[in-house]
Amino acid sequence: MKSRVINAQSPKTIAVIFETGDEVASTLAAFAKDQQLRASHFGAIGAFQDVTLGYFNWEKKQYVPIRVNEQVEVLSLIGDIALENGQPKVHAHVVIGKADGSAHGGHLLEAHVRPTLEVIVIESEGEMRKSYDPLSQLQLINLSAG
Question: Per-residue pLDDT tens for 17-48?
């Protein structure tokens, strides 16, 4: 993974380019921590050699993994980065396209790039914070926090 600030003014804009074999979810989380991102959103396109999507099962309050073990196009990868317990936390959803033209989507749990993934991160001034939501049992953005 390589990155470069393409606009240092507010809002700060960073191009993050993943290469073949890079794991997206963990690498993007490490990047967010390294850059101390506090209120960001991002979008990306590219391709994966494999991906694990997540579908949130409301009754069980957990993500059900959906493994796709084939080359796919990343039609849309969008997400945000907010603070959870003082640390940047990435939340991303992805829509992928298979060779037959069918699309699948969900929460991004894990993915390996092939050949590239081009991510544009926009960092806003200020910060967003997550807090525990008892109904969903998830950490959700809380606009009254911070």
Answer: 999 999 999 999 999 999 999 999 999 999 99
Of 8, 45, 38, 7, residue with least CA distance to 24:
45
Nearest in space to 42 (alpha carbons), one of 75, 14, 74: 14
User: Element (H or E) spanning 34, and its range?
Assistant: helix 24-35
The dotted CATH code for 2-142 is: 3.30.1330.80
What residue ranges do the domains of the chain occupy?
2-142
- Note the pTM of the prediction, 2 decimals: 0.94
DSSP H or E run through 35: helix 24-35
> 70-103, pLDDT tens digit by residue?
999 999 999 999 999 999 999 999 999 999 999 9
- Residue 17 C-beta-side C-alpha neighbours within 13 Å: 8
